Amino acid sequence: MAKPQQIIIIKRGKAHAGSHGGAWKVAYADFVTAMMALFIVLWLLNTSEHTKKVIAGYFNDPSGKPTDAGTDRAGVAEEMPFDKEKIEKLKEQLQKQIQQSAVLKDLSKQVEMTITPEGLRIELLESKDGTFFDSGGTALKPEGKDMLNLLADKLSTVPNRVSIEGHTDATPYADSKTYSNWELSEDRANVARRLMQHPGGLRENQVSQVRGFASQRLRTPLTPNDPSNRRVSLIVQYLTPDDFPAKPGGKADAAKSCAPGPAQKAAEATRAASSGKPAAAH
To answer: 129: which DSSP letter?
Structure first.
């Protein structure tokens, strides 16, 4: 009698995710990246023109400090020189920022901005009781600090250099024997400079001059004791060819190579003396 055949049952386990593996991770990463890009675009669409320019400047040259023209690295400002039109826009932006500040809005009447042959002149005008500085002193009031900080933060993003001036009215300083309006005007200008060159403010090489004029340049000459003659002026200067680095073989180098050196000037003077003719002026 034949033995019954033994039945062997083989059960195979199902492999999970065998058909697609890790492909879903790549798709998910692409989705997250796309969403992040979308949110960045939406944020940029709702930012100010100034912010857009600064971000664009950073991507033009991310190794330097962001400015409206790129960064503060040499040569970036040559792409976008600050002409009269851009200075006018800068003036409008500053006025808008002051108006939007709840703290500084009431002081806007004490800030006068004008376009001059030098550039944009920003004048912080004192009132009878003193608006930005203590009367007769060099201590900045809280309002003065806030205003100068706002101006410094904005001006730090432009490639232009800034000069700072101090002015007084015609009233003699109380202790004029040892300290006069000359020292007071210069000290106030330097106080403003030190505050504006805080980290994130004006760059170390951005201030071109600090000057004190005492009462020699009155704002209202017909009323020399008017409080508005006491002021600190910031001049955002137009860019000049000297503000840009010379390119090898460029116009600056050519002009430099053509300019007479000390030895050439001395030779010309000697020849002029021997011939009795004046040397050419340079």
So the answer is: T
Query: Which residues form the domain of 277?
Result: 247-282
3-class DSSP state for residue 246?
coil
The answer to whether the beta carbons of residues 136 and 174 sit under 8 Å apart is yes
pLDDT (tens digit per residue) in 114-144: 999 999 999 999 998 889 998 888 999 999 9
- Position 214 in a domain: yes
> How many separate domains does the chain show?
3
* CA distances (Å), origin 8, targets 2, 5, 13, 14: 18, 9, 16, 19
| Secondary structure (3-state) at 97 | helix
- State how beta strands 207-212 and 162-167 pair: parallel
Q: Are 126 and 137 within 8 A, CB to CB?
A: no
Query: Residue length, the chain?
Result: 282
Of the residues 74, 93, 113, the one at which a domain ends: 74
- pLDDT, tens digit, for every residue of 36-82? 999 888 888 887 766 776 777 667 666 555 555 444 444 443 444 56
